[in-house]
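In this section we walk through a basic example: taking a raw amino acid sequence and producing a predicted 3D structure, encoded as discrete structure tokens. The instruction is simple. Fold the sequence below.
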Amino acid sequence: MFALIRSAVPSQRLAAPLSRGIYAARVLAADDSKPPSDPSESDDYYIPEENYDNDLDIEAGVLGADPVEAFMPIKDEEVTYANRHKKIPDSEPVNIKPKDWKSSKDEEVKPLKDKKAEERRVWLGFKGWMDVESQKYRKMKPHATNYVGGRYPFPLNPFFNPRPPIADSVKESLYKEYLEDPVRNTPRVLSEKYRISIKRAEGIIKLKAIEHHKVAYGEIVLQKNFTSGMESMLGVRSVTGIMEPQITKRTSVSGPRFHAVPEGEAFGPVEAAEVLGRKPFQQIVDRLAASTPYIVDYEGLDEKFAPRPQKKL
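The resulting token sequence is shown next.
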């Protein structure tokens, strides 16, 4: 036996209790006036009896004027028409088990309105921060930092708190004094005046000499505005605030060495340096502290930017 079920309303739910035998059902289009004369030639689909109970619950859905077929057996729970667009060939028998069907109500999908509400909440929080909190970061403080994390450039790393670098104006002043009298204004003298180490004074002189040489020959163009902006952001002051010793002592990181010395034999820094294969420490200190002219070692550097002492005949 079979049953033809007509739905005038596309979303109407239809139920047809059929007697034992063969179940058949079809959802016709709303504009279909009458069922086919020969059911065997129609688009009905036959379902074996042993796969279902006596009740077959079908939810009809019609798209336009095209017939849509659906078979949705249920027992104790409501099943929506989730597969209404799928067409099953006539030559293949329908063998659908209830466990293969899943209601869209069971799918945990976040509602669209909740997503929009979350996006709006984040936007309002950001906008509020921009309107109130961010106003103090719009303009840079002169000669002072303006970090979001307070005194630290990285809020999540409070242990990184570097000192501000030396201002470019201070470097230019140091280099100018060196050019005026390289013999008298040695790195040692300049380091005492600017309260920086001798090595730092030598580095400033060398870099400034190379910089002036390249600018004079058109090799580079200085970005003074960029330098000024970075100095304002990093809290650079017009006067140096660095207090460092003139000579930096390098500590040994190697392991201890043992050397057998006969009793009564003198063994001092000179002998120790000889055993280690190094220059005596006092000799290195005297060379660094000596007030001798500094010679910039850079190939092709014009002498007017790095004067060299005249050799005596």
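Looking at the output, two observations stand out. The chain has seven helices and four strands. Strands lie at 13-17, 23-25, 45-47, 55-59. In the next section we compare this with other chains.
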